Every structure is written in C-alpha cells, then in structure tokens.
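Example record

The entry below shows one chain as it appears in the dataset: sequence first, then structure tokens.
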Amino acid sequence: MKFFSQRSCRQRSSRQRSSSLIQTISGQIMLRAALALLLSALFLVPIRSTAARAPEVIDRIVATVNGSVILQSDWDEALCYEALLSSRSLASFTEDDRRADLDRLIDLELLRGQMKSADFLHATDGEVTARIASARKQYPHAASDEAWRALLASYHLTEKDLFAHVRQQIDVMRLVDARLRPAVQIDSKSIEAYYRDQFVPKLKQSGASEVPLTEVSAKIREVLTEEKVSEMLVSWLQTLRSEGQVHVPGAAPSSSDPGVQSQ
C-alpha cells in the first residue's frame, strides 16, 4: 500500500521498455531520497488508545529534542502510520523497526526546528487536500468516504490526523528543497559517467534498445540531483544532531551518533 504506484504493461515495444527503465531508475533514487522524510514527517498526533481494560493510559517521554518532548503515544502513532503505508501488521514490527521509527521522529523534530523562520511558507489547506485526494486513488478498496475512514481507523488514525501528517510531509520536503537543492551542481561529465556506467548497462540487461544520451540527459540530471540531495540531507541531520540536544532515556550512547545522549 503506497502513495506512489508503478504501472507496467504486458507487452511493450523496445522504446517503451527504455522509457520505463528511465522512470524506474529515477523513481528509485527519488524515493530513496524522500523515504526517511516521507515516513518521519507524517508522525505528529498522539494515538488514542482503544484498550477497554484501562480507563486511562499514562504517557511517558521517550525522547527530548532541543527541549521538545516526544511521547510514547507519538512513537506508537509513527508505527501505526508506517503500518498503513506498508500494509503491515503492527505485530510484524521488530525492535529494530521500532527504534528506526523513533530515530525518524527525532529527525523530524530537528527539521521542524528549522521551519521557524518567518519567511518559511507552510503548506496551504488546498495543497494538503489535493495531496490526500491523489493518495486516496491508490486505495481502490477504500473509495467511499465510509470505507476510507474505516481504513484509517483500522490503523488508529483519523482524517484529521492524516491531514496533519500530509501537511507536515509537504512542509519538510519544501524545507529540504529550499535548503539543499540550490547547492547541487551536476556537470556534464557526471551525467555522461552515469549514462555509460549505469544507464546503458541496465538498458542492456532489460533487453531494451539503446537510447541516445541527448534524450535522457535531463532525466539523469534529475536522478543525480535527487541522489545528491539525499546525501546532503543525511549530513545535515547528523550536523543538527551533533549541535543539538537529543536525549533518549535508557538508550546506550553510540559513537556513530554523537548527538544522542542517554539519560
């Protein structure tokens, strides 16, 4: 279950296979660049417990980021949302999966701190509504409003929760584009190297006919740009962690992540 779908035809001409491969290569890089953001930027509102045996659920702090608190309920909802996106049951999540979700929540909080500039333009209600409408098309079994709400409820989410998640997703991607993309410069030699070393070999493996560099240079530039933005984002998040105050109670300190401190 994904917000982005890939369609294929049973019979394609050689040229069509080439075009499909171009899109696939580009999509893989772009999704890799956006994956952490897509998942981390959507976990905002604490989940409401549906347990019947306890009249009240006492929340607890699982991390603090520059003074902001991340609660167990926030972490729980992160898992619920990832389960929705990946069509997984919550029981299938391992401890490593859960820790990865907490790391993404920490990254999100660090990025949210960078949005406090007065000139940052947050997503409008119209942009969020349009994104959700597009996303719903990928869930044909939940086409009606009733079925859609039931699908969200099965993952302990409401339409209000989803609206907040998608707004944050747009905001984070807008922040990354504004901060990192202008610094990316892709020269012709890099495009030629990618074409020679990666694109052409994959064309041959797929059985498609060769495509001239002039026809795909713009797409390759886009792919390389997204790849570079992804690398820069990882570096930026590491810097934000090292310069910030990130505390995870009970977590063992890691030399590979000096920005995280245990309590």
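Notes for this example: The first strand starts at residue 61 and ends at 65. The helical segments are 14-40, 72-86, 95-112, 125-136, 145-154, 159-180, 188-206, 213-243.
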